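Ticket #4471: structure output looks truncated?

Reporter: J.K.
Steps to reproduce: submitted the chain below (254 residues) through the standard prediction queue, then opened the result file.
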Amino acid sequence: MILAAVLLSIVIVSGYIAAVGDLDDVPEPYSTLNPYYHTTLLGTGYKVGYFINPRATPLSEINFNDLKKEGITDIYVLANNDNYQSVLTEAQTRAETVGMKTNAWVYPGFKYSRKVADMKVGVLLDVETHNMSAYVPEIKAMRQDTKGVTFYLCVKPELWDGSQEYYLIEPYCDYLVPMLYIGDYGQDITGLRNWVRSFNYIFPRKVIAGLETYQSDKNLTPKSKNSLFKEIKAVQPYTRGVILFRYGLSNYPG
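Returned output as attached by the reporter:
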């Protein structure tokens, strides 16, 4: 369903059906839109994250100073059961030097969330599924293991990609990170803005938008900085931040 094309969007919230009516009736967002020319103008406390896959781009090849200059506040580094300690230690050391926060980007089956939390590193669990209920026990356990650090759930976008049952998992995370990849889902800026506006109303201050920095999964041509900033501007009033994804390539923003 394309949110921009309907006046009444039906969403599942906390086990019951709730209606989000005319989007013009949604209350004003909790933050105002700042002047918008550069990511560093997005405002104090607004996260601008960046996914890093060290297997595609070794940490040694990434200029952390350049990421910081471009406005990146947080990095999300792919880690697994075998390499998490070495990868996250290197990432954290380099990120802290320039004032960025480090988070582990992990998939279901990761066993060391408590050890990662002891390192004062946040955890983002990437759960790409159409059977969310099957992952609830693991999500609840990981929430317990990550007390004291930020715990994110990266998920498919509700409505754009079927029912994701956010109401089952929202209580167990600090932030939901829907993968709002407009090129993959045939959406546009209007659809993107309407999606975050609706779900910020349902889950206030809980959404961080995942945005792709390439055209689509079928066209890896990088977006222009102007195009990417338009997406960030569209979601900013209704989100707590954005995380940029580009298949592990780390020449921000393209």
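Triage note (M.O.): checked the attachment and the full token line is present. Residues 33-245 form a domain with the TIM Barrel fold (CATH 3.20.20.80).
Status: closed, working as intended.
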